Structure formats: C-alpha cells, structure tokens
Amino acid sequence: MLATARPIAFFSYTIRLLSLAIVTFSVGEAFGQDVEADVDVRVDDLQSLEVSVQPINDFVFKIEGEGAIFLINTSEGSVLVDTGTPYAQNEQQRTAIREHATGPIKKIIVTHFHGDHSGGLPKWKSEIDAGEIEFVAHHRYTYMSRIQDELTPFFLRRYYPLYPTRVSLDPNRPPSVHWEMEPTRPVFPGSDYAFELGGVKFVVIAPENGGEGEDGVLLWLPESRILFTGDLFGPLYPMFPNLYTIRGEKYRDPLDYIDALDLVLDLNPAVIAHTHFRVIEGEDYIQASVRRMRDAVQYVWDETVLGMNAGKTVWEMMRDIQLPETLAVSQGHGKVSWSVRAIHDIITGWYYYDTIANMYHVPPTAINDDLVDLVGGGDVLAQRAKAHLRADRPLEAIRLLDVATGNETKAVLEVRIEAVEKLLSNARAGLANYSEIGLLKADLRASRATLKGE
Known about the structure:
Layout: H1 6-22, H2 27-30, E1 53-55, E2 60-63, E3 69-74, E4 77-81, H3 89-100, E5 105-109, H4 115-118, H5 125-129, E6 134-138, H6 141-150, H7 152-159, E7 185-187, E8 193-197, E9 200-205, E10 218-221, E11 226-230, H8 254-267, E12 271-274, E13 280-281, H9 283-309, H10 314-320, H11 336-348, H12 368-375, H13 378-390, H14 394-403, H15 410-429, H16 434-451
Parallel strand pairs: 4-5, 5-6, 6-7, 11-12
Antiparallel strand pairs: 1-2, 2-3, 3-4, 8-9, 9-10, 10-11, 12-13
Helix pairs in contact: 8-9, 9-11, 10-11, 13-14, 13-15, 14-15, 15-16
C-alpha cells in the first residue's frame, strides 16, 4: 500500500470543498458516532502513567508508560514498536518486555525521533550493532535526529520552561545517544517495507509528513487490522495536530498531514494503537474521528488561504480563524492559531511586507530604551498597561510591558504579573493548551523572581 499521491489528494480535497460548501454536518453523526470536542487528559498527565501491560489481542501488548512500547509476539520472535523514554521507568518496561515476549526481539520499529519514543534505543544498541535486531525507521529519522543532536543546547533552553522536571541544563549531562543511532533499515515514502515473521504480516509505511515531524512511520498489521500510529495524531486523541509546536521544531506541512490521514482512512483500521493514553477501537469511531481531524486541518488551511488572498494580516487570521462546532477537537496540545501562522509562514517565509526594517539585523527591541525614555519611564508604561488590563485587554498590556524589558520597575513587574495571571486564567478555562499554560507559568516565575530580587 503506497502513500497517497498528491493528485489523488488534490482531487479528494476539491470534493471535500464542494461538500462543505453544500452542507455542514457533524462527521460523528454521519457515522453514527460521537466524536469528542475535547479530551480529559493533557500532556503533563503522561508523567504520572505507571508501567503496566495491556493486551490488545492474544499476541499484541501495550507496555504503558510515559512513552509506551508495543510488543508484538510471533512464533519466530517478537517486534517492538518504539522504545520508551530514556528515564528510569524504561527499565521497568524492559522487564515487562522480557516477561511477555515469546521469543527474541527481531526488529525494533521507531515511529519517530522524539525522545519518548526513541529514548530507550541505547539499551538495544549492542544487539542492533551485532545484526541481531533490525532497527527500522523513516529515512528522515537520521536527519531529524541530527538537528536535535547538533542543536541540543539551543533546544534544551527552549524545552526547560515547559518540561522543568524532564530537562537538564547541566552542561555535563550525558549525551543523547539515541539520536546518534542510525536505522539499519530505513523506509522511504512510496516504498513500504513489508515483511513476515512467524506467520504475521507487517507493513511499515512512511508518509511524507506526520503530526510531530517528517520522520513518522506507521506500522500496519493487515490481518488483524491494527495500525500503530506513533504520534501521527499527537499525544491526545482526537486533537488538532501540532503543525507548529511552540517549543520549537520544523513546521509540519498541513497538506502532507491531510494525505497521511487519508491513508489511515483508506486502510480502515479496526484498532489504532495510539502511543499515548488510550488505544482506539471500533472502525466506525476511527473513521469518524480521523475524518474530523482531517477536515479540521483542511478547514484551517482553506480559511488561511482565503484570508491571505483577501489581504488579511497573519495577526488578523490568528485572531479570526476558529474551528466550527462540527469540526471541534481538542487543542490541548496543537493549537489552531499557531497553526494558522505556521501555514502562513510555510507559504510566505518570515518577511511579512509590514516594515522594511525587518529586512535588516536591527531587532524591534533595539529602540525600547528610547521609547521608555520618551514616555517618561517604565512606571508610565505600567500605568498605561494597567488601563489596558482594566479594559480586559491583557495582550495589549503585555505588548506595552515588553517595551520595558531591561527597564523593569516594581510597577512594571506587578502589572505584568497581573496581566499574565489573567492570561493564565483564560488559558485554563479555555483550551487548556499545555504549552500555552507552561510558557505563561514560566513568565510568571521569572517576573516574581525579579520582583523578589532573585
């Protein structure tokens, strides 16, 4: 089964546009299934998951944890899908694998480079190097890992505010060996890797792009109709994808992502072995929920294209484009407004035709000191920012207070704390997006520490 070709995807995209123009309906209702507009879990809940073994059928097991591992047993040996995190919990998962595997591990399929999926690889390195285990991954796995490996100090500084209990800024920390390991069997888009082991048929499929990077692979068991998706859908299900992850990674192409979801729909799985939280069962529900996620991305793409052609700014589109109720899915990890800007920037790049100054190296912050002097000091900015805050405009207040960066007075810090607390309250009561909340909390910690003179 080959990856969906672009002409087919474009044709189906055109048909979807026509159908959306004719009638708006609930995708869940069309399949007699209710699709959640949101889910109860969030990314930080992963850290509380304990190791357990959950059977999917009589030969497929999910080894639960912060990064789950799937064990597939056959009469000639076993296959692992993902390897878990590099944290201490991984040893418990390896113990569970030893207890439930019916033979030696023959292949390890890593769905993508993220550390909660690839972090346990070094524990298998000697067997992989000896040729006893085949390490299977997307051909872009090495490329994506290289970016993370070479830019580790940069990324850790960005990750730390969001994952303070999982990220170390110690310059003497151990290297991330899992990003130095290369697949012994890379898989390329349009050229599936099909094999049979112990009478079980396996098909490894490499889409052009996925929900959390361009190196995602799927594993399909055609006879059992189980599809292992890694993070194709992100950590939550169903959810709007992380077309741009605020912690910082390459943009994920929305049209490629739509193609990948069309591929899932064509396979028509009965079970989606979703890495994080629950395993998804029931072909009608899977069809309804995948269609809703796909159509939600298509809607955001279409609206962004319409806005760009109409001359709207990226800021206006971030404000205005929202999912209709019939396409609502969780934005607890991916977020529509960030994806709108990602789509815009994928198409246009970083120059917005707003000011010629942005063609040069002097940043907008270069004149902040001048502005502070001209208005009469940071306290004056704080006073105006407080007026915005009282008018329920916390974002405008933050923009003003940003001008005072480096010239923070007690008043500036106090108003900033109040404004960020307002944004944090709104975020928790609204989408409850993990990254948005994490960065707001990090901003609060910094302002409070400065106010205390720390």
